[in-house]
Structure formats: C-alpha cells, structure tokens
C-alpha cells in the first residue's frame, strides 16, 4: 500500500543556506516529498574526489547515539524518520559497518514507500545499494542468504579483507570487494563504489565507521538530528575513534536546521566550498 505521509509532522525551516530564515517557512507532509528532497539534494562529488559521503546520525541532548536498548530506534521519532526516508531515496548507496548491520537488523534495502518517482526524477537507479564494511566477513544470515532477500532488492556489496572474503563462501563473488589484507582501506572501498557508479554515499554508522571516515577525510557532510531526550548511561557517541582527530578535529559549517516537536535536524558541511544554493522561491507552506 502506498505511503500517504499521514501522521508525519510538519517541519519548520529555521536556517537555510547558513542563514536564519526571516519569515516563517514550513515543509508540510507530502507523499512525494518534493520540497524536502530539494532541501536535502545529495551533492555530486567535489572537485578531485570520486564520491560525496553524507552521514546521517541521531544523538540525544547528552550525546548518546542510542537508547537503553543499544539501538538508535530508541531515541528517534517521526521527524527524523521523515528525513531519513528522503536521504535514502536520494542516495546511490547506503554505507554501514557490520556491527551496525547486526545490532540494527539491516537487510537489503527497498526504496521507501511512495518515493520511487522521486528517486527516478533524481537520476538514481531503481534499487538502493547497501554496502557493508567488515574486516572479518562475519555477517548475519539475513545478509548472506540471498534466498531470504526481499523482492526488488539487490544483494549488498561487501567491502572486506582477504580473510573476510574467504569466509564468504557461497556469497555472490561479484558483490565481494577486497579492499585490504588485514583491514578495510576506506579510500579503496569508496573508489570501488565509485567504479560501480555509486558516487552519492549515505553513511549510517556505526560510530567507529564514522570515526574512520572522518579521520581519513572521507566525510563530506553530516546530517544530525538532536533528539530532545537526556538518557545518561554508557551509550556511544555518534563518532568514536581511538584518539582525537588530527588538527583539532574536522571543522563544520552549518547549512540548515529544521525543527519539529523539539527535534532539531541540522545539516553540516565538512567541506570549505559551499553546497549548491537552494532556489530562492519554492512551494514552502506558510
């Protein structure tokens, strides 16, 4: 049954193109999400780069990337989910670490309900690719058993090591990419995706993968939802690494902020060059 968008919240636009919005602007629920897709258009790769890597993460007010259950579903909400669907529809490939695949129960990806036309209009292929980063090749059965994959999906691309590839006996060989001997070389992994025409990359975690992407200067953009919750506990941050990132961290520039029900949905650029400007006019509801 098509997704009608009912029950989805309106989103107030507070900051656009790095500047506060002077007059009220609201993005109302829309089954086709045309206006939201304009706000979140996935840029082409910057000069000298083969991919544009956008991360999409959520955090509580006290910096937790998960709730008490150890998954992000414990802290997200309808506003976050609305943007999440559009980001997936606009991506060539979703990049995720094997630990997150196991924790969050990932399966091969289907296009979000009602967004196939949006995806086609954006020039994306009919199927959303899923690429999994795994050093060991240890993946759950819902990934490795191709016979279980939902109709209309494609087997995930596995970005792994020589040892990891050896463990994946029986998995389609053309979907396994060896990117290093003992560890996954993320530059080689992104180059391999680009070679397949998958240049608009949406990274969905986990925190260790995002830490490696940021540390290697592979991360171009961060879409971060701040959930109006304080949870405490031992939850990870959205980015983890063994040491502080070089040169004092990766500087970010605010692109936009949307708001709904206390949730703040920010878009940050990690590149010096500005993102393409949004049209001055549009179908925003006031």
Automatic annotation (TrEMBL):
Bacterial bifunctional deaminase-reductase C-terminal domain ranges (all copies): 52-244
Entry's Gene Ontology molecular function annotations: 5-amino-6-(5-phosphoribosylamino)uracil reductase activity
Gene Ontology terms: biological process: riboflavin biosynthetic process
Keyword Methyltransferase in annotation: no
Pfam entry (one): RibD_C
Gene3D superfamilies assigned to the protein according to its UniProt record, in alphabetical order: Dihydrofolate Reductase, subunit A
PANTHER family (alphabetical): 2,5-DIAMINO-6-RIBOSYLAMINO-4(3H)-PYRIMIDINONE 5'-PHOSPHATE REDUCTASE (PTHR38011:SF7), DIHYDROFOLATE REDUCTASE FAMILY PROTEIN (AFU_ORTHOLOGUE AFUA_8G06820) (PTHR38011)
Protein's UniProt keywords contain NADP: yes
Name of the protein in question: Dihydrofolate reductase family protein
Domain of life: Bacteria
Keyword field: NADP, Oxidoreductase
Pathway: Cofactor biosynthesis; riboflavin biosynthesis
Lineage: Bacteria, Bacillati, Actinomycetota, Actinomycetes, Micrococcales
């Amino acid at each position: 049954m098509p997704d009608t968008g009912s029950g989805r919240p309106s989103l107030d636009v507070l900051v656009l193109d790095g500047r506060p919005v002077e007059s009220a602007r609201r993005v109302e629920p829309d089954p086709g999400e045309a206006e939201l897709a304009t706000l979140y258009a996935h840029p082409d790769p910057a000069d000298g780069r083969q991919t544009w890597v956008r991360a999409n993460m959520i955090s509580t007010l006290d910096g937790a990337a998960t709730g008490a259950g150890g998954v992000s579903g414990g802290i997200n909400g309808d506003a976050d989910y609305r943007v999440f669907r559009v980001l997936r529809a606009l991506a060539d490939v979703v990049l995720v670490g094997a630990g997150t695949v196991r924790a969050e129960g990932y399966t091969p990806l289907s296009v979000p309900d009602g967004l196939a036309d949006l995806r086609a209009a954006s020039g994306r292929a009919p199927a959303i690719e899923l690429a999994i980063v795994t050093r060991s090749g240890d993946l759950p059965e819902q990934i490795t058993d191709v016979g279980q994959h939902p109709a209309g999906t494609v087997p995930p691309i596995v970005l792994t090591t020589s040892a990891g590839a050896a463990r994946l006996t029986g998995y389609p060989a053309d979907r396994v990419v060896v990117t290093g001997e003992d560890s996954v070389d993320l530059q080689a992994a992104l180059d391999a995706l680009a070679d397949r025409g998958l240049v608009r990359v949406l990274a969905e975690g986990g925190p260790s993968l995002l830490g490696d992407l940021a540390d290697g200067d592979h991360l171009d953009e961060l879409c971060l939802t701040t959930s109006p919750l304080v949870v405490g506990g031992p939850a990870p941050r959205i980015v983890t690494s063994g040491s502080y990132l070089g040169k004092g961290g990766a500087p970010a520039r605010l692109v936009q902020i949307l708001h709904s029900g206390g949730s703040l949905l920010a878009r940050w650029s990690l590149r010096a060059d500005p993102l393409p400007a949004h049209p001055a006019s549009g179908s925003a509801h006031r």
